[in-house]
Amino acid sequence: MPVLVAAPSQLARTREVCLEIGRVLAETGLEVDVRALQDVDAIDGYEAVVVGSAVEDGRWQPEARRFIRRHGYALRLRPVWLFSSDSLSEPPAQPEEPDDATELAILSRARDHVVFVGRLAGRLPGVSERSTVRVIRTPAGISREWSKVDDWARRIAGELRRAA
Fold this sequence. Notes:
Elements: E1 2-7, H1 12-27, E2 31-36, E3 48-56, E4 59-60, H2 62-70, H3 72-76, E5 80-86, H4 101-108, E6 112-117, E7 119-120, H5 127-136, E8 142-143, H6 146-163
Parallel strand pairs: 1-2, 1-3, 3-5, 5-6
Antiparallel strand pairs: 3-4, 7-8
Helix pairs in contact: 1-6
């Protein structure tokens, strides 16, 4: 069963989550294609889709919102899961739904939406993130609770195996 796992390509933190989800799904025997949303023209060849986005100012990135809207009909014809990557929390906070998460879940008929909150630690890639680190006086970088990402990916794999 071919599964697309995709997110906008700009931020390494979201790409890392996609790669981890893809790794876990592949370990369960699924055929996985991890791609940048900008490189996906159609989803016809996929039987399931996982779409993610970093959260900026309480909303998904514009590229991710456009992808959901552009492919809304095709997404509704297959199982879809959504994830948000929100990384500016020290210590990790309770996950908050992005302002547009409900709308995007309805448009895609997503089976689930989850927010993965990281904590700052190490080196940050972006200017805005470095600025935030300076303001809140937090060590640079982002660390995730990878076990939560892995558990979620395993749940997806389980649902897909039961449906097959």
